Amino acid sequence: MARLAAFDMDGTLLMPDHRLGDRTVAVLKRLRERNITLTFATGRHVLEMRPLVEALSLNAFLITGNGTRIHSQQGEVMHCSDLSPDVAEQVLHSHWETEASVHVFNDSGWFTGHDIPDLLLAHIYNGFRYQLRDLRRIPAHQVTKICFCGDHDDLCRLRIQLVEALDKRADICFSAVDCLEVLPLGSNKGAALSVLGEHLGVGMDECMAFGDAMNDREMLGLVGRGVIMGNAMGQLKAALPHLPVIGNCNTQAVSHYLTHWLDKPNLPYSPE
């Protein structure tokens, strides 16, 4: 039996309308009743995750910003990492050949230079929104991560530029097909989960994790039971071909999988 369960949000627990389904909430509460510790491991900000966890009374740890922050069940900061100021300065002050929009995150929230209402749709149910700001005026020592949002092919070309320019001074990954992130070196969900597991006295072999994007790769490959969503990025499935693939987030596949795992642990699982 697992002692710690980690869940990505977008494309995993959340349905396409960015809400948690009733069956998903019910099965998460069943895990808590079995004394399995929960953590939500997401690229989302703690300012939007904390109200969700409190509203559902799930008493979960939070790994946010793709591993740049860990918060306790009481909301205390357990771990934090930010981009090196030289990296933040270079990314924000350089000219990149891309049409993607640029977004900066720190403990105060989400900042961007232009109004893009469509990006708020993913946050419509919690009210979290960006603040308009001249990004070049944000102090380089106050940047947790930088995101580029746009067309996937354009972002793939941008990734080549960033990798060459930053020369292994930051980690660069896709958190979704339309979102490329520049993260502090060594910051990812897997590394953060290891920190949390050490704090809890839980080995990674006693953990399970669910995800759908390349920012979940380290976490899924590290735990004793890693599970990939059917709607996951093709790159993730190719990177971890030995892991099971379940159904789609639009059918609350995590709930389906966990219900079987809880009720019929000795029988083979078949996606719905």
From TrEMBL:
Name of protein: HMP-PP phosphatase
Give the family per the record.
Belongs to the HAD-like hydrolase superfamily. Cof family.
Which CDD domains does UniProt cross-reference here? HAD_Pase
Q: Which top EC class is given?
A: hydrolase
Reaction(s) catalysed by this chain, per the record, are: 4-amino-2-methyl-5-(diphosphooxymethyl)pyrimidine + H2O = 4-amino-2-methyl-5-(phosphooxymethyl)pyrimidine + phosphate + H(+)
Where on this chain does Mg(2+) bind?
8, 10, 212
What cofactor does this chain's UniProt record say it requires?
A: Mg(2+)
InterPro entries (alphabetical): Cof (IPR000150), HAD-like_sf (IPR036412), HAD-SF_hydro_IIB (IPR006379), HAD_sf (IPR023214), HMP-PP_phosphatase (IPR023938)
UniProt KW Metal-binding keyword: yes
Q: Which PROSITE patterns match?
A: COF_1 (PS01228), COF_2 (PS01229)
Q: What is its EC number?
A: 3.6.1.-
Which positions are catalytic residues?
8 (nucleophile)
Taxonomic placement: Bacteria, Pseudomonadati, Pseudomonadota, Gammaproteobacteria, Enterobacterales
State the UniProt keywords alphabetically: Hydrolase, Magnesium, Metal-binding
**Lineage top rank: taxon:** Bacteria
Q: Name one Pfam family in it.
A: Hydrolase_3
Question: Is Magnesium tagged as a keyword?
Answer: yes
Q: What does this protein do?
A: Catalyzes the hydrolysis of 4-amino-2-methyl-5-hydroxymethylpyrimidine pyrophosphate (HMP-PP) to 4-amino-2-methyl-5-hydroxymethylpyrimidine phosphate (HMP-P).
Molecular function GO terms recorded: hydrolase activity, acting on acid anhydrides, in phosphorus-containing anhydrides; magnesium ion binding; phosphatase activity
